[in-house]
Design a protein that fits this description.
four-stranded parallel beta sheet; binds phosphoric acid mono(formamide)ester; binds norvaline
Length: 310
């Protein structure tokens, strides 16, 4: 008689530490296999298998996005599904309707929800009240889809990430937090180098080590990562202060010169060139930022299959 999917029969993708290491590994391997299977095909070509055939996916954005918006949209279409890209402010959600009611209603129209929002609580409430799976497309606290793409990218270039040294230079932000969760689940070593005032939140303590001196921090690094110094949820009034605090943590040729010769450079993008990283590094031989951006597509396709059990 009940027509709704049972909540406990569904799989959300809310954060990296909330998915088991075995499932995370399966997602990465599946993403790589799906990527290889469509090498050289025009982007609009449907995949050989269409696991999302007849499925409708809502993509909700309460913050700007280029990569997340387009990669999810293209990914759903390649797998045979259909998308609706919605902005929070155009929905009643942005005008007082509760998240819980929005979640209940959306679940009657779509099979999967991806949401990019501000407070983590919005994501968690959406997941609690939706009767379809929910995927985190970035909150103020985390960005798990990004880091799945980053792991895929690292392993394509430099082999298994297990046991490798990853160094984050800059702001201890939402993208860093998902790296910290991944360090535990994928068993790699993570170092944070940045000012004390922009230290990652204490909930992440124990998942990484801190070294204030960036040149020391990157010694022996297999991967150097940074991100914008001012995130979308940060007040613009903090811009100048943050720049002053973070200038010494810029990823430039000198800093990369202290890492391993084959160390990769990553940035989730969008970047502010010559602030957090120089153009010389971004466009240099160790940079894999375009592969990283492409791999959002492949990683998220595997995440959606995981959520829908397809
Ligand atoms: N890296 C990332 O999430 O980019 P967008 O903000 O463009 O989606
Ligand atoms: N830390 C950045 C990531 C953007 C993809 C932000 O939240 O704005």
């Amino acid at each position: 008689m009940p027509l709704q999917t049972e909540r406990n029969a569904m799989t959300d993708f809310l954060d990296i530490h909330k998915t088991s290491p075995a499932d995370l590994r399966a997602i990465i391997d599946n993403a790589g296999a799906m990527k290889n299977a469509r090498k050289g095909l025009p982007k609009g070509t449907p995949d050989a298998e269409l696991p999302l055939a007849n499925h409708m996916v809502a993509l909700i954005f309460e913050k700007p996005s280029t990569r997340t918006r387009i990669s999810f949209d293209v990914g759903v279409r390649q797998m045979g599904g259909q998308t609706m890209v919605l902005s929070g402010s155009d929905m009643q959600l942005g005008h007082g309707e509760t998240i819980a009611d929005t979640a209940r209603v959306l679940s009657r129209y779509v099979d999967l929800i991806m949401i990019r929002t501000f407070e983590e609580q919005t994501l968690l409430e959406m997941a609690e009240y939706a009767t379809v799976p929910v995927i985190n497309g970035l909150t103020d606290r985390t960005h798990p889809c990004q880091i799945m793409a980053d792991i895929l990218t690292f392993e394509e270039h430099n082999g298994p990430i297990k046991g490798k040294k990853v160094v984050w230079s800059g702001d201890g932000n939402n993208v860093f937090a998902s790296f910290a969760h991944a360090a535990k689940q994928f068993d790699f070593d993570l170092t944070f180098t940045g000012p004390e005032t922009l230290q990652p939140e204490t909930a992440l303590d124990g998942l990484y080590t801190t070294e204030r001196d960036p040149n020391k921090a990157v010694q022996g690094a297999d991967l150097v990562v940074t991100d914008t110094w001012v995130s979308m949820h940060d007040p613009q009034s903090a811009r100048e202060r943050r720049h002053n605090q973070l200038r010494g943590y810029q990823v430039n040729k000198e800093l990369m010169g202290n890492a391993k010769d084959d160390a990769l450079f990553m940035h989730c993008l969008p970047a502010h060139r010559d602030d957090e990283a120089t153009s010389e590094v971004m466009d240099g031989p160790n940079s894999v930022i375009w592969d990283e951006a492409e791999n959002r597509l492949h990683a998220q396709k595997a995440i959606m299959r995981h959520c829908l059990g397809k």
